Amino acid sequence: MLRYTIKRIIMMIPVLLGVTIILFFIQALTPGNPADVALGQDAAEADKAAWISEHGLDDPIVVQYGKYMYKIITKGDFGTSYTNGKPITGELISHWPTTIKLALMSLLMACIIGILLGILAAMKRNTWIDSIARVFSILGVSMPNFWFAMLLIMLFSLKLKWLPVSGSYGPMYWILPIATLGILNAAGIMRFTRAAMLDNSQQDFVRTARAKGQSERMVIWHHILGNAMIPITTCIGQYLIGALAGAIIIEQIFSLPGLGSLMMTAINQRDYPLLRGSVLLVAVSTSVIFLLIDLSYAAIDPRVKARFKSITKSGKLSKKQVQKN
Amino acid sequence: MREKKNKAGVEEIRRRSMFSEAMARLVRNKTAMFGFFILVTVVLLCLAADIISPGGYDQQDMKSRFVAPGLEHIFGTDHLGRSMLARVLYGGRNSLLIGFAATVLGAAAGIILGTISAYYGNMVDNIIMRILDVFNSIPNLLLAIVISSALGSGKVNTIIAVGISTIPGFARTVRGPILAIMGMDYIEAARTIDAKDSRIMFRHLLPNVLSPIIVQFTLGTAISILCVSSLSFLGMGIQPPEPEWGALLSYGRQYLNYYPYLCTVPGVAIALIVFSMNLFGDGLRDALDPRLKN
Amino acid sequence: MNQNNNILSIKDLSVHYITKETGICKAVNKFSLDIKKGEAIGLVGETGAGKTTVALSILKLLQTPPGKVVSGEIFYKGKDILKMNNSEIRKIRGEEISMIFQDPMTALNPIDSVGKQIAEVIYLHKKVSKREAMKLAADALELVGIPKERMNEYPNQFSGGMKQRVVIATALACSPQLLLADEPTTALDVTIQAQVLDLMNELKKNLNTSLLLITHDLGVVAEMCDRVAIMYAGEIVEIGPVKSIFRNPQHPYTRGLFEALPSNKSNSKRLKQIDGLMPDPTNLPPYCKFEPRCSKGSKGCGAQCPEFIEVSEGHWVRCHLAGEKWG
After folding, report:
1. Taking every annotated instance into account, which residue ranges of this chain make up the domain ABC transmembrane type-1 (chain B) (predicted)?
2. Which residues of chain B neighbour A290 with C-beta distances below 8 Å?
3. Neighbours of A (≥3 Cβ pairs closer than 8 A)?
């Protein structure tokens, strides 16, 4: 297990290298001069040239890339922002918690609502409860998050005046952003849970459990849900990645100082190092989430665990495994 | 030789009858047909924008600014007195067209990559899949944002940005089933008679993964439309005065307190089109692959 | 037939599967069967005859919808199972009546260790702690010939035959009065089949369990059972002691089954087959269900349903021509 984890972490390195290469490549394609934005259109050409060479932008792209990577690997230094000159590492550290908090809290809400509703819908299949749950799920999947956020603002902030419109001055300011992503993602998770529950409730081992005299409650919560959690885990991981991306837009609407706001500033200011750092951070998070999904598989599903063990031991089936089969 | 032809003929008939059966199942599915009806209605309305609003989306009328929805202006007017009906219809053209074109682009590239990857296996597969892993590690929308920020705004650039972000999804949709089929005897048989690679791919492999491609295309277009409007909402993609649903929402945001209809109309439009596509796409999946149905 | 001797008594059971697409599928029709204490009965018939449906009905495990018991009674120790509520039937399931399912590959929960799966049934019915249940489960595993060290392993680490042993251990863990075995060997290799059957036979003798063995293998019936019931299109067409039926099969369908067996006495090179297919269960004929495939049929067969006729002691057959000499 540990060896598998280490192997997977090592496998992340080329992926993340790829991300940095792509980001550099995209930057090279970008028209316009970042100095125009940093110093203003009207700045003297000499100043602009000085600025360019100061930031190493007159080097060939390969050299720039090499310097950039060297700094990251040796010092964990992602460079400094073009716009305010602050180190990017610090900017990321100060903005990251907002985004991850929004993503995780909304995902938690989505899981609770989505999984419970999904179980309910599957158990009450073809009843009005199921119908309502299905309409909710497909509406939720279809609703753009920024539009749903605005609907919530219209209702709870402007009309009922229960909650603040935007800003970040306390827990009240977090309710609407979390609810926006939480409710929408709940729809998707619900849909998935329902399908996985129905799929597993048809399995033979469920009948076996009933034939043992097991109570319906345990049949549903242990035997059916236990197996349904395997696909549901994948789904939750996907939604966590989705919530990260969604947080970027939602932060904009509710003026939360997260990674999304940072990224939009970086894009508007042509602040390449800042954009690179932010995207790289998201890519790292995504890769870690993918790894966590795979590891949690092993925790839930002994079949996967067995495969992990045999893979890490020899690359093929181990002797013990062969004998057992 | 004749036998082979016969077999191909039988295969052809089997495929055709499966297709007509699937269509029959689809037509019987009421929710799917409901989605299809909404989809067609909205698309037709957007296409008929010239007829419904011959003045175009940018016809200003400073005397009737911020007119609430009513008989004269069904969807009201904005701060320049432009008809929201016209802006939503012309905006819909942009949203739908860009979303559709982006999906076509992504599908074409993704299908080719996925097929090549599965067919040649080993090194080729490894390289292509690792590159897709890189793209996969950045969420769709974020990828589109980054590409779009580099390319700049505009229709073509947005199509490219959104299209690229859908490639990995299509490649994976195609690769899995093809890998499964690759192991089957009739592919082996085709290889032993020295069939050309391209023939095996187009004649034997791709027709078998048509169902998942069709489903992914329908649901993918819905996602692309969401992606396009998200981009425009963030101030990339399509920019004012050119209308687009996301851009209209972004514009209406500042008047949310006083003129909420400026947001409601485009917001409902996006939700409606994506909703109908999801309904139809789900119906398609159930019809094409009854085993998956719950 | 002494009523008190019967551990289970099924009377006129009819089960329908009702779906929108196919309409009403009459899977079991007026099915009656008594099982005595300690007796082993074989229930033989081809796929789709309704054997499994009968077994599932006994434990109220039919999936409803689409399945539905339309009429009939199933008396277990004098109480009608079909009228029991959920908690009453749960006490019987696994403890008094247990079931072995056809496919051991899918009958075990992949995410629980085999020990836990056996302990589950013990913990549910015996007043023991979870730890003691695990101990008893270990004993049950040993009983079916699996070393107890393997009880923490998962089903994916077991072969098909070993899985079926686990299933048997689960079914017998609470020493049930009645065991329903639904084609327990069909999914297994021939060599493993004999092992599993021997094991079941032995355990059955030791525990004095009654057995309803569902199979389409007459050889298995000869080895395991006291009586045999031949089922066709949802009803029993012939029932009697194994010896009597094997020596003197009366129903043309039963004869067909025997003729379809390879035998070292006959010198014909090809096995005989019963022509035709079972009637469509959504559209059963109102007369003898076997008439369309019967080679011996006379004119009366297409007119009405035959009643049971006793041809020798305890040997009943449902055929208009029963008792007549065969040519």
Report:
1. 92-281
2. 137
3. B, C
Q: Do A29 and B236 touch (CB under 8 A)?
A: no
All structural domains of chain C with their residue ranges: 3-225, 251-318
| A287 → chain B, closest CA residue | B137
Q: Domain C3-225 is classified in which CATH homologous superfamily?
A: P-loop containing nucleotide triphosphate hydrolases (3.40.50.300)
Domains of chain A are 13-75 (no CATH), 92-302 (1.10.3720.10)
In angstroms, the CA C249 to CA C257 distance is 10
Question: Distance between CA B173 and CA C68 in Å, rounded?
Answer: 41
3-class secondary-structure state, position C148: helix
Residue in the block written with tokens 């009905």: C57
User: pTM for this one?
Assistant: 0.82
Residue of C nearest to A224 (CA): C109
Contact B234 A249 (CB under 8 A): yes
Task: Render pLDDT for B83-104 as a digit per residue (tens, 0 to 9).
Answer: 788 888 888 999 999 999 999 9
Domains of chain B: 96-294 (1.10.3720.10)
Does C121 reach chain A within 8 Å, measured CB to CB?
yes
Place of tokens 């002994």: A302
What was the ipTM of the complex prediction?
Answer: 0.84
B137, burial (CB in 10 Å: exposed 0-12, middle 13-18, buried 19+): buried
Q: Which residues does chain A have within 8 Å of residue B249's beta carbon, measured at their own beta carbons?
A: 144, 146-147, 150
* Residues C190/C194/C195/C198 CA torsion (nearest 10 deg): 160
Could you report the per-residue pLDDT of A206-215, keeping only the tens digit for each?
999 999 888 8
Cross-chain CB nearest to A286 (options B137, B246, B260): B137
Residues pairing with C13 in the sheet? C31
The residues, ordered by sequence, that sit 6+ positions from C73 with a Cβ below 8 Å of its Cβ are C10, C11, C12, C13, C80, C82
Q: Do A147 and B130 touch (CB under 8 A)?
A: no
